[in-house]
C-alpha cells in the first residue's frame, strides 16, 4: 500500500467512531439523489466502494440481495452494520472476480483516488452485463457559508487559530463535474445513463454541528492543535454565538455531482 493510501486509512480509521455519529448522517442526506435513482433490483449483489461505516450501504441493503462494503480504513469497516459485508481493499485494485456483481456505487470517496479511471476500469470488469455503477462526489461549491459556518469562521479568526496544515492530499478536481466522471465511465467501456449536478440539503442539529466542528474535519483538526485554554474558550464562545440562531442557519446545501452508468 502506498504511503498516501496508508495516510487515508489512518485518517479515517482513527476518526471512525466520530464519523459514524457526526458525519455519516450528512453523507446519507447528500447521497439521497443517487440512492433514489440507482436502478437496483431485489436480487442484486452490489459493492459499496469506499463504504466508510456503511451508512449508505445499509440503506441500499433493504433493496438488494447483498451489499459488500470495500474500504481501506479497517477502523471504518469495524463499524459497518451487519447488512454490509466488510472487505478491506483499495478500490483502485478491486478484489472482485470478473462479472460477479450486479451493481456498484461510491459516495464521496473518489476524491481520494489519484487515478479514478482505475476504479471505473475495475468496476467495468467486475460488473455483469446489464449492471450499473452510481457515484456521488463533491462539485466545486461546497457552500460552507452563511449561518453557522460564518459563526465558525469568525470565531476561528477571532481566536487566531492557524489554518489546517494536516489535510490529506485529495483529487477533487478530477471528479467535480458530471462530464469528468462521465469520461472515466465511458473510457472504461460503460454507457452513461445520467449525469447531473444538484444542491442537496443537510440540516445539522446544533449538538451534531458543535460535535463535528470541534472534533473532526478541518475545524476540528485546527482546534486539536490549539492550546487547551484557547480550545476551551472557543468552544464556550461557539455555544454562546450559536444560541441566537434559528434552524435555517443550520442548513447546508453543497453542490454535488451524481452519475449513473451501465454496462451493456
Ligand atoms: C468521506 S468517506 C465516505 C464514506 C462513505 N462512502 C460515506 O458516504 O459515508 C471516504 C471513504 O473512502 C475511503 N477510501 C478512500 N480512498 C480509498 C481507496 N483507494 N480504497 C478504499 N477506500 C478508500 C476512506 O477510507 C473513507 O472511508
Q: What does this entry show, briefly?
A:
This protein has 264 residues and is α/β, with parallel strands linked by helices.
Outline the structure in words.
This protein is of the alpha/beta class and 264 residues long. It has a single domain, classed as Vaccinia Virus protein VP39 (Rossmann fold, 3-Layer(aba) Sandwich), CATH 3.40.50. Helix content is 42%, strand content 21%. The chain is built from 9 helices and 9 strands. The strands form 2 sheets. A 7-stranded mixed beta sheet has the order 3-2-1-4-5-9-6, with helices on both faces. Helix 3 links the parallel strand 2 and strand 3. Helix 1 packs parallel to helix 2. The longest helix has 35 residues. It is elongated, with a radius of gyration of 19 Å. The two termini are 33 Å apart. The model has no long low-confidence stretch (mean pLDDT 96). The structure holds S-adenosylmethionine (SAM). The site of S-adenosylmethionine has 25 residues, from helix 1, helix 2 and strand 2.
How would a textbook summarize the main sheet?
Answer: 7 strands, mixed
Ligand inventory reads: S-adenosylmethionine
Number of H/I helices: 9
Mean pLDDT: 96
- List SSEs in N-to-C order: HEHEHEEHEHHEEHHHEE
**Rg from alpha-carbon coordinates:** 19 Å
**The CATH H-level homologous superfamily:** Vaccinia Virus protein VP39
| CATH architectural designation | 3-Layer(aba) Sandwich
Intertermini distance: 33 Å
- In the CATH hierarchy, the third-tier topology is known as Rossmann fold
So what's the CATH class? Alpha Beta
The amount of beta strand, in percent, is 15-25%
Shape: elongated
- Which structural class do you get from the secondary structure elements? alpha/beta
**Uncertain ranges:** none
Amino acid at each position: 500500500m502506498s504511503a498516501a493510501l496508508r495516510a487515508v486509512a489512518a485518517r479515517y480509521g482513527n476518526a471512525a467512531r466520530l464519523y459514524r455519529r457526526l458525519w455519516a448522517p450528512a453523507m446519507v442526506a447528500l447521497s439521497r439523489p443517487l440512492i433514489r435513482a440507482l436502478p437496483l433490483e431485489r436480487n442484486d449483489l452490489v459493492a459499496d466502494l469506499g463504504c466508510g461505516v456503511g451508512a449508505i450501504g445499509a440503506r441500499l441493503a433493504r433493496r438488494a440481495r447483498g451489499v459488500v462494503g470495500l474500504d481501506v480504513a479497517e477502523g471504518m469497516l469495524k463499524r459497518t452494520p451487519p447488512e454490509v459485508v466488510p472487505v478491506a481493499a483499495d478500490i483502485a485494485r478491486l478484489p472482485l472476480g470478473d462479472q460477479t456483481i450486479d451493481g456498484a456505487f461510491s459516495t464521496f470517496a473518489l476524491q481520494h483516488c489519484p487515478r479514478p479511471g482505475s476504479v471505473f476500469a475495475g468496476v467495468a470488469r467486475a460488473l455483469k452485463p446489464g449492471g450499473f455503477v452510481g457515484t456521488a462526489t463533491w462539485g466545486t461549491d461546497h457552500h460552507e457559508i452563511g449561518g453557522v459556518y460564518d459563526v465558525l469562521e469568525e470565531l476561528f479568526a477571532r481566536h487566531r487559530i492557524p489554518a489546517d496544515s494536516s489535510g490529506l492530499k485529495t483529487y477533487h478536481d478530477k471528479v467535480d463535474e458530471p462530464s469528468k466522471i462521465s469520461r472515466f465511465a465511458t473510457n472504461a467501456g460503460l454507457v452513461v445513463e445520467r449525469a447531473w449536478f444538484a444542491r442537496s440539503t443537510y440540516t445539522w442539529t446544533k449538538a451534531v454541528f458543535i460535535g463535528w466542528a470541534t472534533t473532526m474535519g478541518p475545524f476540528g483538526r485546527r482546534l486539536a492543535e490549539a492550546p487547551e485554554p484557547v480550545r476551551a474558550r472557543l468552544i464556550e464562545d461557539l455555544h454562546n454565538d450559536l444560541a441566537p440562531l434559528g434552524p435555517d442557519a443550520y442548513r447546508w446545501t453543497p453542490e454535488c455531482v451524481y452519475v449513473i452508468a451501465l454496462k451493456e
